[in-house]
């Protein structure tokens, strides 16, 4: 009842502001500036007044995060992190600090090897080798690496994002992803790197579900980084299939091994990260497969700022089928002897399961999303992961109900194991939203967010035919407002709504949900749990969902 009242108040306030502007009672530009100032003051007040739930002494923070007490003290004195009086604080222990903020400060640096000339040479050597199987793609990525004038920024990308934000301005049921005009613009975007699906590599890429398409039927990629991701996906999952398309994947895997040896997986992901930084794309369309493959690059780019936020209706950390994907879980449920690689499955499990034929929740690339990203200890920074508990409960119960007694027991044990692994990661903050209405429109659409980027999931069936998600560079946001082909009043509203994609606003809402009890924190970021503690939380959560 309270949620309905809050929503009514919110809608009433928005309508009041619109009425004031549309009636001319207040000039629209002045109204917009006043609302922006009010929003900024409220955000600033919230940040400065609220007390985090994870307050500890500076000594406790230094021990938990693994840094010296002197470093924590310097961060407080220099204003890098805030200090709080807290309840029960005494002069003996001094001001308290937020454990998550200390962990973020400790990880606010990139530990990646720079894209030095030697690394570039390796990428170029690899591309030269793969020209035998993917000639056009290899040449285009090579050009992106060596040509400093390479640019795939187009005015159409700005307009597509503007259409998304404009459609999101609706109230209630009128809140949409795209207007019909916006959907047309999205479908007419041409890939910057095209692939002929009639070639052996094109057929493999098509079957793996890594190609985006335009309304004209052209297939390919919107950026050099996603083209490299396709090569990575082909050399890993693609190489598992026994037919001639799998032969292409095995050739690509051989080329990677020739250049990088046994470290080829990590080095190829390095190449994706560095090429993505060298030639960023302001707006990139993702398929479901690319969404899972790209999380390594996304989190590595986010680590310099120290924190990222992800929202999910189908959380892999609780649902084994969404953690492993269908082929691997099928092997696990029947005790099949799997190959040693994390992404690998037996030919029997993958015989009828090309990624493009599966719904996104069963995609075999989902394992990459976790093993090489969310649960990767080499990627630093706090990773806040918030899931919809009602959706997770429905999926967990439905999958378990379809199994026999022995299989059901095994499935539940896998769910506990995966959640335990997640809770054991010091950098992960895991939270749940227990009320379905509280997992709102924006949470449903923000797959993951950081200071430099936000990944927007598309849920509308018509939009899903074009792309599963849109990766947006936040540096693009000011251009969206300036280039908007609309009247002044709508542009002023656009200037407000575009802030929904800014990380500071997303982060403020996340923390406000925790403060008001809308979200329930299972584990705080920066806190290290032992095996017993993590498993106890996991068992309690999984069994409560099944009860």
List keywords for this structure.
547 residues, alpha+beta, eight-stranded mixed beta sheet, three-stranded antiparallel beta sheet, 13 strands
Q: What's the helix and strand layout?
A:
Elements: H1 2-22, H2 28-49, E1 55-56, H3 58-65, H4 69-77, E2 97-98, H5 99-106, H6 117-130, H7 135-146, H8 155-167, H9 180-188, E3 193-194, H10 200-208, E4 212-213, E5 219-221, H11 224-235, H12 244-260, H13 264-278, E6 283-286, H14 288-293, H15 295-302, E7 307-312, H16 320-324, H17 326-333, H18 347-350, H19 366-374, E8 382-388, H20 389-401, H21 405-423, E9 428-433, H22 441-445, E10 446-449, E11 453-457, H23 461-464, E12 469-473, H24 477-482, H25 488-497, H26 503-515, E13 519-523, H27 531-546
Parallel strand pairs: 7-8, 8-9
Antiparallel strand pairs: 1-2, 3-5, 4-5, 6-12, 7-10, 9-13, 10-11, 11-12
Task: Give structural notes.
The structure is a single chain. The protein is built from 27 helices and 13 strands. It has helices spanning 2-22, 28-49, 58-65, 69-77, 99-106, 117-130, 135-146, 155-167, 180-188, 200-208, 224-235, 244-260, 264-278, 288-293, 295-302, 320-324, 326-333, 347-350, 366-374, 389-401, 405-423, 441-445, 461-464, 477-482, 488-497, 503-515, 531-546; strands at residues 55-56, 97-98, 193-194, 212-213, 219-221, 283-286, 307-312, 382-388, 428-433, 446-449, 453-457, 469-473, 519-523. Strands 6-12-11-10-7-8-9-13 form an eight-stranded mixed beta sheet, sandwiched between helices. Strands 3-5-4 form a three-stranded antiparallel beta sheet. Strands 1-2 form a two-stranded antiparallel sheet.
